[in-house]
Fold these 4 entries.
Entry 1:
Amino acid sequence: MNKNEIYNLLIKYADGEASSSEIIFIEKLISEDKFWKSELEILQKINVDFLSSDIYKVNPATELNWESLNKSITLEQNKKFNFSYFNLLKYAAASVLLIVTAWFLFYKGNSIKDFNKFNIGKTFTTSNNEIIDIALSDGSVITLNQNSKLTVDKDFNIKNRLVEIKGEAYFEIAKEKSKPFIAKSNNTFIKVLGTIFKAKNDKNKVEISLYEGKVNFISNKNSNELTPGEKLIFNTNTDKIKISKIQSNDVKFWENKLIFKDVKLQIIAEKLQIRYNITLIIPDNKKDEKYTVSFEGMNLENSLKLLESVTESNISKNKSKYFLNH
């Protein structure tokens, strides 16, 4: 394989479009050859620089670029040059190549062309106080928070792994190098191979918290790679990005499922309080009683009725507090 062919593969690899066999070849190459590893790093940096800069929004029509370039080169008949006509052509060709390459990296990386193949398949939605686990065919598990929506591509796990999230979800993505997992979130894209992260969006903001692995976040003008422990906040109005460390008090909604197996009533009450934002008082002599029960998918009223039933008690309300009585 000659150098031009290898460079073509490096570009595909940097843009996340290499096939499984090409990925294996490139990763073996860069692990054994420092030169090609350095070249890949340069390509990746160029990709990020182009994505984050406005000056590279160029017309991709090659003929127009040639015409524009030719107009900018005025050769006075009687003027002497220190370089040959051959060199002039060489520099001109390099300039056009740079323009076309810039367009290729900017628009191809920016559009996430894989997602153009997205066809609406199965859709999952959650209502108030409902959190569900969704097991996908590739082995990935997505926990969908309340008032959220997940749409899975009709052909998921055939050639691509594509989903769209509206609201908030926790992703545990199975590793599959030949099929990158891409989640669309408020017209931005989160591209991964195998990792654990949380994604949340609303009208003006996209948030990503990364717990394991790596993710690439791509918007119209930005491309950022996160490492574990980092949180990214993207403002959709200003296109500005802020990256910080995940705080210890970061809300982990997926750990607050209302499914209990042989759990003390005091702990059940604490979970219900967090989910429904209420104060629930339990008598001391019942706090250590253990129950197996699920409140998932229920609103506050039905959850309290179920709690009354399983504990053989009744619940009264005084102002903003609920009391479980014998």
Note: DSSP finds seven helices and 19 strands in the chain.
Entry 2:
Amino acid sequence: MIRGSKICGISDLDTLNFIINHPYPPQFIGFICNYKKSKRYVDVEKLKSLLKLHKKESKFVAVLVKPDENILKIIQDLPFDYYQIYDCTPEEIQKIKKKYNKKIITALTIKDETDVEKYELFSDVADIYLFDSKGYEKSIAFDHSLIKKIKVKKPLMIAGNIQVNDNLENLRKIADIIDISGGLETSGIKDKSKIDIFLNKIEQLKNEN
């Protein structure tokens, strides 16, 4: 059942302002904080400027790939509600969660069923599970049906080359939250018209639940 959405890879004030003030804003907005390979990476000074904007109904998410102590200290006082963490062990995430008192989106990158099964290892640290592709900075798809059988009591978020024109209704039985980034871009830049279409689609799906 689709309960909400996440728009990831926001890096400019104009787009952020549009999203936050949309009639149907996303539940989550993600910022790439330490993965410099991504074209959506935001350096710390720009991040501080962006996050001065009042988030209103949305939650701010720091997207972190195997974060070190340096980046965690730099962002600790920024108004993030969640840390979305890739490539860390459950023990590493537990330490981060305890030290910085943040809710955690545990991001698992999926190629096959073996990768899916790893979610059980993170049951004590994940507030939300995110199943993503192994593309990282590249928009790569994975077989979303691999996670159909998962039954967890925590929200399940799905990503992996989802496009605004996809039949998002097909994901209703798989996930609670749809996470999209590249699918809302034109020539590598966030496209407000695509964002508007996506957010309206999500609202329609929520109303049909």
Note: The chain has one domain: 4-208.
Entry 3:
Amino acid sequence: MLFENIAASEDALYLHSTKLQSEFYTGLFTEQVQKWQDDPNQVAKSARNFKIFYNAPFFPMRPDLQKFKRINWERAVLQRRSQRHFDSRPILFSQLSTLLLLCTGLKKNGKWLKLPPPDPLGHVDMGQLQSCNRALPSGGALYPLELYLLVRRVKGLSPGLYHVNVLFQALSQLVRHDQPMPLAGTIAQDVLFGEPAVVLFVTAVFERTRVKYGARGLRYIMLEAGGLGTQMNLLANAMGLSFCYDGGGYEDRIESLLGIDGEREGLISQLMLGHSKE
């Protein structure tokens, strides 16, 4: 009972102190937002909020958008569900690519924006990012989320740990595995989930949102992470794949696996993708 009371009071304290009408927060929030909006350098940086692993091998995505356009969306909504008990059947790289593009892709003038890889000196034409946005909305267009993939069984892609390269529509391979990595030790209910083809780890670089919204930014980060999961759930089911949220990952172990510190960038959630026995 004591632990529950402490947790409840901590939740209430955060929610109260980050309300727009809070005496503690209102002045700070208004001042910080205005300062950010008046700084063109800060505003310009928001379009470039993404990580790039320049030295990692990367694999261009291969989305199949023509097949995707034939989906009956009413049926997709009616059949949307969360499913566990994944079996060992692989998914296709084209399916994974389509899902990732439709959730993380850059857009400009009603078309997908794909920049060419950097030149031998590592230069990238960032000017093309002006007036672009992404498939998923983000509070203040600050895009704090990063997406890592534990690829276990995907036809056309080696098992390993990958990062979604938003800029080049590619997957950066951070670690290659000889065999699908077991989930035991990272996911609390690994027996319940079985053998998902891919585990997607959603992280947040907190300062991207905090620089404008301060402590209130955590509210927007969680909203965005929830939107990402919902969009992926619907899209995955529409393509005939099974999907499930999971909030039971061991944060410290997963953050160590991803090579992040858990403070400047931390784990928000993990998402399971594959074929279910259900």
Note: The mean pLDDT is 87.
Entry 4:
Amino acid sequence: MAAINIIGQYREQFVTYLKAKTQLGEPKNLYEPIQYILGLGGKRMRPILALMTAEAFGGKAEDALDAALAVEMFHNFSLVHDDIMDDAPLRRGKTTVHEKWDVNTGILSGDALLILAYQCFEGYSAETYLELTQLFSKTALEVCEGQQYDVDFETRDDVTIPEYLTMIEYKTSVLVAAAMKMGAIVAKAPKKDADAIYQFGRNLGIAFQLQDDYLDAFGDPNTFGKQVGGDIMENKKTYLYLKSLEKASKEDQEGLLHLYSIKPEDSSVKVDAVKTIFKESGAVDETKKAIQNFTQHAFDALVEINLPEKSKILFKQFAESLMNRTV
């Protein structure tokens, strides 16, 4: 329970800072969508991890606030643009930016968010600035590569599970890993430890995305915040889909391939049929096993790090809370 309270304190500290830093500017049609997407909430997982890591390595959480803000701004920039590419109507249970305003506004306000993210690093010393921006630029490019893989996979029938895991590593987990390493950099942690905490974040991020894939199909629409079955409607080749193709009967494999080749008027029938194949093939159990495996890899990376035991326990409890989530 204490860990939940500490994580809540980090979240509160970050959200307070975020609100202070995102005042409405002119022109309003540029800055209102930015304030809107940043204000939609979400788990704030990445900034919390940046603050946690800075303190775990003996630094101050407040010194990592700007790095945490950069990560959160970049994350939201990518969401605004992803939602346009996916034509998604909902984000965190609310109307997406391009639906609330229009596509052009979504593109431009997303671009501005990316620039604002880079500006967050300007208060750091030259040496820290260089380390942070090099890591940030590398990560930002990997996120774009991951998004392109994701788009490419929609029209490919030969996607492999290793390819899929690379895609989600780039699209999701590298930003989690970078947030943690930034906290370590701000705290001036030894390079070996900063690299190891990156591996913790990388494996945690993969587990988190696999959990997201699972919730997209089997989550509660009232708590999930996105359209349940959205990945199926978009013909996304998720871990569930790929494992189903590997393990299902020949008849179900053919049925799945057919379902992923159509976009019917009533998408609920398609979603239900696909979910039945996911369950019957054993893909649901395989996905849950993979989530546990990557979470364990994250815990294994913690063993290598020179950190107080209470910090390691806090990171473990944070990971477990993510894996047990319903949103």
Note: The first strand starts at residue 90 and ends at 91.
